[in-house]
Design a protein that fits this description.
The complex is a heterodimer.
Chain A lengths: L5 H27 L3 H13 L8 H23 L1 H4 L3 H7 L6 H18 L4 H11 L6 H24 L5 H24 L6 H13 L1 H13 L5 H19 L2 H14 L2 H6 L1 H7 L9 H18 L4 H6 L2 H15 L5 H18 L4 H16 L7 H17 L3 H4 L5 H5 L4 H18 L6 H10 L1 H4 L12 H15 L7 H15 L7 H23 L2 H9 L10 H15 L5 H17 L3 H17 L4 H17 L5 H16 L4 H11 L14 H26 L6 H16 L6 H18 L7 H20 L1 H8 L4
Chain B lengths: L1 H7 L3 E7 L7 E5 L5 E7 L5 E9 L5 E3 L1 E12 L6 E12 L2 E3 L3 E7 L9 E2 L3 E12 L6 E9 L12 E7 L3 E7 L3 E3 L3 E11 L3 E14 L6 E14 L7 E7 L9 E4 L3 E13 L4 E11 L6
Membrane topology (chain B): Peripheral membrane protein
Pfam families (chain B): Vps26
GO biological process, one term (chain B): intracellular protein transport
């Protein structure tokens, strides 16, 4: 029957409409002539068109609307007794003489509404009668529309009941009873629309069926509008009855829709007070009903209610909304064994959202939810479902957003346990979310315990998890991740050195598991963080040494922040880098540490760091460019060291000078060597000032520069640039000004002439390098300037001829 | 023979008038020729009084062997046409033989007439009451005039009037329980009831309640039974499910019913039945028939 083509249906609809119009025409004629008998006859004939079984709900509705409009006219006619001369009571009987039930009941409803409005009889009696009589139509679609018509004509009357003041409890009760009954019957009819035929049609039928749902839902809407329905009545009568119907109909579509309807049409306050009843139904629904949507909507509503109206929060506590919701969710999950994990998680997400909005102060609730979630998850193998993991991420992100950071979340014991159930990729995503949240909120993690938990959370980023295949790693992503971790490390801070040390140790413990790929990213920030601590310690109590001695005794029993202790840790950290290997980085870090040790006046420590740096330089830095950089770093650092005794210093400077001279390229050698000169001349009051050795270095640099020049001549046929000479000249000038007695006017004079000669011999060649030329010119100009400036410096410069 | 016809033409007008003809209620009565006329209504034990007026045509006289008026209650079987059976016959002699020259009026009176049966017009049988005025004439043939009237007898409310309740069904197919509030209904009554579906395994399309009239005439081998469906009233549209109960409310007033007549003078009976019919989607009919008694209740005005 339903499988017929659309064209046929259109035809039937057209026929039906034509039939209605035809009979309506005569009906109007009869009404104009005030002929009741004829009017009834034609109206019944008109309504007979609605007896068709051939139309889909959609088209039937169209037909129904036509008839509906006509019935409005008829009602007006009925209302005017002077036109037809029959009392409404008699009319009520008269229309029941019609032989066919459908027209009869439509007419009965029409007259019924007139009857009730006439107030000749208590409305409740008529209502009761009408709703009872409508049982005669058992055909789902026809019945639904008939009852819909009944609901429409009775609506005004129902809503009137109260406003008239005569709404004693009894009358209201009757009205409610009427709506409930009509609702129940309509729902039964709706549920009864059977799905038959092939799957292709089934979908269409399902759609058509769902189009009818509003007819059913309208009743609930009316219920919510009847003023007399107070909380008490809702609790005692309305809700139990509606829910009974919901449960009993055992229909997926209906259950879902009706639950949704209940939640949407009745006031929040009612929901709050009847939470238990409402929730109690959930486990009884069909397994296919999307309960999570239902519950989510409920929780959304309630949380909106709570948010918009802060006064009601105590009420939430009073009714134990959270416990009930949580309980209900548990039961639902328990009852619906087949529910996919994503469903369960979604439920928890909704509950969490609810909790965060309504009870932001109740962290225990949040933890409970996570705990329940863990319980559920642990019964499952690792989650594969992408949607489920997405939900878990949502679950975990929600508290972060709410509490502006991880700090609160870290106190949730179940938080990391939930994360354990994520797959690696998601775990990483989640870890990133956590880090970003920390960054965004600039929140500082200030205890070692929290740090520990935090690292437990983000361990996806900290170390290689089992079964993580390397090939899935994207280089860029990896860098991004590790940089985030690095940034995170700076957020771990406590002003109390002891705690800070603990934090550092904790972090160390974690990052050392990270493997060679991660260490270069994670070690430096930790080191700097530790150095920071050292400096802080130093500022705090100036006399570090004294404290150190004091600390030695109880070092075993507790970690006290002493620079020495920290330096040990630093050493271990940097050593870890050797496994990477990242020699350049390690070298830099050693030097940093050495400098810090210097500041702390810990000569042995500083010496040790330098030793390590030199070892690395010797053993691991083979690239000549890297060597150049490294040697300059070493020199720079060493120059600033003031902690060393003469012997140590000599050893180190000697080494450094030695390395400089052994660089591969001559210019590099030259530059390193003249840089070494600074090792012997520290421009401090107490700094070492060994002018002789400075001169030695510079002379050696000159020799190397010469050699470089010659080499260039030999290999390329032209001497190399004079840059090196100019640079050395500058060094000469520097020491000259600093008052190094070994640097004489004559030496400078000689160098200037040498450069001038070199430039001249160079000039015939095709292209004189402009840069050294300019460099030299400006150097000369500087000398000139100093001479003209006069004063002590001017006098010293006086003898130099340019 | 034409002149003879003229000779037989009634030489006078005879009219019958009831004494309370102006005020007495009149009801329609269908005559043999199909026309409906309004006739006075009586009930048993009433006095039937009136006047007979004989008005000879201008300048004629009427010779007669006597004038009489009869009150007849007749049962007429259509298959035995022309054969009236008079179950009541009352006679009043109005005049001794003589001649009538001018309009003459005779009053008549039948007091507390026993009229146990109601006027009835059925398919095969008719029960009627008639006043018959006969002006007897010798060879010229008597002049006869009829006046029909209708008798209706009212019953008191039955002292016992139990409802009808019954469970019927086809095994494993359909079980219903039906209930009508009474077994005896008056003519303007309403049948209230319920059909309760205990088991439904067939696809029912609709359910009707019919009122059927069974008229049986004659007796023994000559019995004729005629059944008419007077009302067909749809109770339910569509297929019910188990546990559904369908209300019944049928107003009897729109239908042309008569009271139940049981074995009227051993000539005929008229019985009424409620027939509950269920039709399934293959148009198979399932039905159950229950007799109800219909009576005429005195209308209180």
């Amino acid at each position: 029957m339903l499988s017929v083509g659309i064209e046929d249906e259109e035809k039937w609809l057209a026929e039906g409409i034509a039939g209605i119009q035809h009979n309506a025409f005569y009906m109007h004629q009869a009404m104009d002539a005030n002929s009741l008998r004829e009017g009834l006859k034609y109206s019944a004939q008109m309504l007979s068109e609605l007896r068709t079984s051939k139309l889909s709900p959609h088209r039937y509705y169209e037909l129904y609307m036509r008839a509906f409009d006509e019935l409005r006219m008829l009602e007006i006619f009925f209302k005017d007794e002077s036109r037809h001369g029959v009392t409404v009571v008699d009319l009520y009987e008269l229309v029941q003489h019609a032989g066919n039930i459908l027209p009869r009941l439509y007419l009965l409803c029409t007259v019924g509404s007139v009857y009730m409005k006439s107030k000749e009889v208590p409305a409740k009696e008529v209502l009761k009668d009408l709703v009872e009589m409508c049982r005669g139509v058992q055909h789902p679609i026809r019945g639904l529309f008939l009852r819909h018509y009944l609901a429409q004509v009775s609506r005004d009357i129902l809503l009137d009941i109260n406003s008239e003041g005569e709404g004693d409890a009894d009358t209201v009760m009757e009205a409610v009873e009427f709506v409930l009954q009509n609702f129940t019957e309509m729902n039964k009819l709706w549920v009864r629309i059977q799905l038959q035929g092939p799957a292709r049609l089934r979908e269409k039928q399902e759609k058509e069926r769902s189009e009818l749902r509003d007819l059913v839902g309208k009743n609930l809407h009316v219920l919510s509008q009847i003023e007399g329905v107070n909380l008490e009545m809702y609790k005692q009568t309305v809700l139990p009855r509606v829910l009974e119907q919901v449960v009993n109909c055992k229909d997926e579509l209906a259950q879902y829709y009706l639950m949704e309807c209940i939640i949407q049409v009745f006031p929040d306050e009612y929901h709050l007070q009847t939470l238990e009843t409402l929730l109690g139904v959930c486990p009884q629904l069909q397994a296919t009903v999307d309960i999570r949507m239902v519950l989510s909507q409920l929780m959304d509503r309630l949380s909106n209610y709570a948010v918009s109206n802060a006064d009601v929060i105590p009420e939430f506590l009073h009714v134990e909304a959270f416990a009930k919701l949580s309980n209900a969710i548990g039961k639902v999950i328990e009852a619906q064994v087949d529910m996919p994990i994503v469903g369960a998680i979604t439920l928890y997400v909704s509950l969490l959202t609810f909790t965060l909005r309504v009870h932001p102060d109740r962290l225990d609730y949040v933890d409970q939810i996570l705990g329940a979630c863990v319980k559920k998850l642990s019964s499952q193998p690792k989650i594969e479902d992408a949607r489920a993991t997405k939900q878990i991420v949502m679950l975990l992100s929600a508290p972060l957003e709410k509490y502006n950071g991880i700090v609160t979340a870290l106190t949730l014991s179940n938080y990391p346990r939930v994360m354990d159930h994520l797959d690696n990729a998601t775990n990483k995503v989640m870890a990133m979310v956590i880090i970003q949240s920390i960054m965004k909120n600039n929140s500082c993690i200030s205890t070692a315990d929290k740090v520990d938990v935090l690292f437990e959370l983000i361990k996806g980023l900290i170390k290689d998890l089992e079964e993580a295949s390397v090939d899935e790693l994207d280089e860029e992503d990896f860098k991004e991740e590790q940089n985030s971790v690095a940034r995170l490390l700076h957020m771990l801070h406590n002003d109390d050195p002891g705690e800070m040390l603990k934090i550092i140790c904790t972090v160390k413990k974690h990052i050392l598991c990270g493997g060679p790929n991660r260490l270069p990213f994670t070690v430096p920030p930790l080191i700097f963080s530790a150095l920071n601590l050292i400096r802080q310690l130093q500022n705090q109590d100036g006399d570090v040494v004294g404290e150190e001695q004091h600390e030695v005794g109880d070092e075993a029993e507790e970690m006290h922040a002493t620079p020495k202790k920290i330096f040990q840790i630093l050493n271990q950290l940097i050593e870890a880098l050797s496994s990477v290997p990242a020699p350049e980085l390690a070298l830099r870090l050693y030097l940093e540490c050495a400098e810090a040790a210097n500041d702390c006046d810990l000569e042995p420590v500083a010496y040790e760091f330098f030793t390590q740096a030199f070892i690395i330089y010797e053993e691991d830095i083979a690239d000549s460019k890297a060597q150049v950089t490294a040697i300059h770093l070493i020199i720079g650092t060493l120059q600033r060291m003031n902690v060393f005794g003469v012997e140590n210093r000599d050893t180190l400077t000697h080494k450094a000078t030695g390395y400089s001279a052994k660089l591969l390229k001559k210019p590099d050698q030259c530059r390193a060597v003249y840089a070494c000169s600074h090792l012997f001349w520290v421009d401090d009051p107490e700094g070492i000032k060994d002018g002789e050795r400075v001169l030695l270095c510079l002379k050696r640099a000159l020799r190397i520069a010469n050699a470089a020049q010659q080499m260039a001549n030999v290999t390329r046929g032209s001497s190399g640039p004079v840059t090196l000479f100019v640079e050395i000249l500058n060094k000469y000038l520097y020491y000259f000004e600093k008052g190094n007695q070994q640097i004489t006017n004559a030496a400078i004079q000689g160098l200037i002439e040498l450069i001038t000669t070199e430039l001249q011999t160079d000039s015939p060649s095709a292209n004189p390098a402009p840069a050294p030329d300019a460099f030299f010119t400006s150097t000369l100009r500087y000398i000139q300037f100093q001479k003209q400036k006069g004063g002590v410096m001017g006098e010293r410069y006086d003898s130099i001829n340019v | 023979m034409n002149y003879l016809l003229g000779a037989f033409k009634p030489s006078c007008n005879v009219s019958i008038a009831f004494s309370d003809g102006k005020t007495r209620k009149q009801v329609p009565l269908k005559k043999e020729n199909g026309q409906t006329v309004l006739v006075p209504l009586f009930q048993s034990q009433e006095n039937i009084t009136g006047k007979i007026t004989i008005d000879p045509l201008q300048g004629k006289k009427v010779d007669h062997n006597g004038v009489k008026i009869e009150l007849l209650g007749q049962i007429e079987m259509y298959f035995d046409r022309g054969n009236f059976y008079d179950f009541t016959s009352l006679v009043r002699e109005l005049d001794v033989p003589g001649e009538i020259y001018e309009r003459k009026t005779y009053p008549f009176e039948f007091s507390t007439v026993e009229m146990p049966y109601e006027t009835y017009n059925g398919v095969n049988v008719r029960l009627r009451y008639v006043l018959k005025v006969t002006i007897s004439r010798g060879y010229a043939g008597s002049i006869v005039e009829y006046q029909d009237f209708v008798v209706r007898n009212y019953s008191p409310l039955p002292s016992i009037n139990n409802g009808i309740k019954m469970e019927v069904g086809i095994e494993d197919c359909l079980h219903i329980e039906f209930e009508y509030n009474k077994s005896k209904y008056h003519l303007k009554d309403v049948i209230i009831g319920k059909i309760y579906f205990l088991l439904v395994r067939i696809k029912i399309k609709n359910m009707d309640l019919e009122i059927r009239r069974r008229e049986s005439t004659g007796s023994g081998a000559n019995t004729h039974v005629e059944t008419e469906t007077l009302a067909k009233y749809e109770l339910m549209d569509g297929a019910p499910v188990r546990g559904e109960s369908i209300p019944v409310r049928l107003f009897l007033s729109p239908y042309e019913l008569t009271p139940t007549h049981r074995n009227i003078n051993n000539k005929f009976s008229v019985k009424y039945y409620l027939n509950l019919v269920l039709v399934d989607e293959e148009d198979r009919r399932y039905f159950k028939q229950q007799e109800i008694t219909i009576y005429r209740l005195q209308e209180t005005t």
